[in-house]
Amino acid sequence: MEAREILEQVRDGRISVEAAEGYFRRQPFEELGYAKLDSHREIRSGFPEVIFCSGKADAFLVSIYRKVYEASGEAFGTRASYRQYEAVKQEIPQIEYDEISRILKVEKPGKQKIGKIAVCTAGTADIPVAEEAAQTAEYFGSLVERIYDVGVSGLHRLLSRLESIQDAHCVIAVAGMEGALASVIGGLVKNPVIAVPTSIGYGASLQGLSALLTMINSCANGVATVNIDNGYGAGYLATQINRLAWKGRENGRERR
Length: 256
Description:
The chain is of the alpha/beta class. It contains eleven helices and eleven strands. The protein has helices spanning about 5-10, 15-25, 40-45, 60-70, 80-90, 125-140, 155-160, 160-165, 180-185, 210-215, 230-255, and strands at about 30, 35, 50, 75-80, 95-100, 105, 115-120, 140-145, 170-175, 195, 225. A hairpin with a 4-residue loop joins strand 1 (about 30) and strand 2.
């Protein structure tokens, strides 16, 4: 539960001051022995802790999901396998799994989505990483528009969606091969571009290293690069930018 939500419940008389005080007095993490759940992360950063599923033993993963879900009514995990989904589903039947992005989540219904983030891919093979970015941003409350398969080998495809891309508070450009998409978009928009190199490509792409080097050496201004295949990191950062843009827009309305 967020600090603001607790304070609103105190204001509305739904919980007592003593109950709220007890929540804030809790230690900032829950000790499980094999993990320390960071229960105060959302209070500090505005984002709840996310579960990295890959490599975790089933028993540990199931327990972590149960604890996070019991505490907040939702839980979000990345890089999960179908086998892990089946294990967690035994404990949380309403859990959802997307085989493309490998995201394993249960979330509160009716979330408000604000602002706009455009998630673009060079090719269809880049979509798994793009979906990790898009679904991360959506989970954190951003409105996302997907613009897929608009790589530079057919520039007219990108230009046909340019107005929508330019309208976004932030653009995520996901590309493998030589990774040129981020530079092209960076030269066409006024808002930040987050470049995500993917490990898609033939041998000399070096599992995404070629795209990474292209993106961090971009001649276009306003392009920042995350790690290879790091859709989650891109979705998180894009949401931070989107929230700031939305807040500035709302404050501008108040001044008028």
